[in-house]
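TASK: fixed-backbone design
INPUT:
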């Protein structure tokens, strides 16, 4: 290649490396060493094989045999450290029934860390962090790609013997900083039961979004109802972020009911434009408030689902 001042090809007999091809450019600061693969084909509308990476085992191939690509870059101390790795792994070795997994790792804080995985066996994509998007906008706060963000898998601890507004033990989801941007939608659903009640004491269920605790902005709230044993509450809501940033804004619409199953009245409500700081983590929280502190008053949260898109 004309761009190369020197070409070094050597074979190193080691356990892990059979052949190494090194391209080195030491004569010019203008041209960099490169390896170009160029193939001419008569095909006009079909794939043409240009590069093949093949791994052969001297033993019997088993699951986890892999072909690995590594990228090394010199750091500020002059050391060459691995910055990126791609592994193509055979997970199922049965002939004609093979499954493969592709894993991508990058350097993070001085440690090579797997961040992405494609699994052929169940056609899933696993991401270690968060998938974000700018929606094609060159600037502005990115947001997390939509999907279910939270779902509880067990009933909460009962809220009982208190008249203070109290968050359910599993009734808070923290939305990470900068997740919300203009047009982000947050959908939530909460369901629970008044397992025990006292006299004419009332129960109110509230959903808040903002700072941690029970002082954040109210986005949904049931009426205060004199509930009976095994009465239920259901809240469905949609929050839309209108503007992002430290002085962001949001609006919401909700449907909620509390009372006897099948007969409780469903009410529609809305929240006018309210302030929300999207540059910091914000909590979406479900709380309960009994009108009287009594050991005979008890309620729990059974479902709390959050979707962000």
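OUTPUT:
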């Amino acid at each position: 290649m004309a761009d190369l001042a020197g070409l070094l090809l050597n074979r190193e007999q080691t356990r892990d490396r059979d052949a190494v091809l090194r391209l080195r450019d030491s004569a010019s600061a203008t041209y960099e060493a490169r390896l170009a693969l160029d193939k001419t084909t008569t095909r006009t509308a079909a794939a043409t094989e240009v590069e093949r990476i093949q791994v052969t085992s001297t033993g019997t191939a088993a699951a986890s045999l892999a072909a690995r690509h590594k990228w090394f870059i010199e750091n500020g101390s002059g050391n060459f450290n691995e910055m990126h790795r791609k592994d193509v792994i055979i997970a199922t070795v049965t002939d004609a029934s093979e499954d493969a997994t592709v894993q991508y790792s990058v350097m993070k804080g001085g440690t090579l860390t797997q961040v992405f995985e494609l699994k052929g066996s169940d056609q899933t994509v696993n991401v270690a962090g968060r998938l974000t998007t700018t929606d094609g906008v060159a600037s502005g706060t990115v947001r997390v790609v939509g999907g279910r963000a939270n779902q509880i898998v067990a009933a909460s601890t009962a809220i009982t013997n208190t008249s203070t507004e109290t968050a359910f033990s599993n009734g808070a989801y923290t939305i990470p900083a900068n997740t919300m941007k203009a047009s982000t939608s947050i959908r939530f659903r909460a369901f629970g039961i008044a397992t025990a009640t006292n006299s004419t004491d009332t129960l109110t269920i509230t959903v808040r979004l903002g700072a941690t605790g029970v002082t954040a902005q109210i986005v949904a709230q049931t009426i205060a109802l004199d509930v009976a044993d095994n009465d239920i509450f259901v809240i469905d809501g949609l929050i839309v972020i209108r503007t992002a940033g430290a002085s962001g804004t949001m609006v919401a619409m909700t449907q909620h009911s509390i009372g006897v199953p099948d007969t409780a009245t469903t009410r529609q409500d809305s929240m006018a434009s309210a302030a929300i700081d999207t540059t910091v983590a914000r909590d979406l929280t479900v709380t309960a408030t009994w009108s009287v502190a009594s050991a005979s008053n008890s309620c729990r949260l059974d479902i709390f689902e959050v979707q962000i898109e």
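COMMENT: The chain has three domains: 1-35, 60-129, 148-308.
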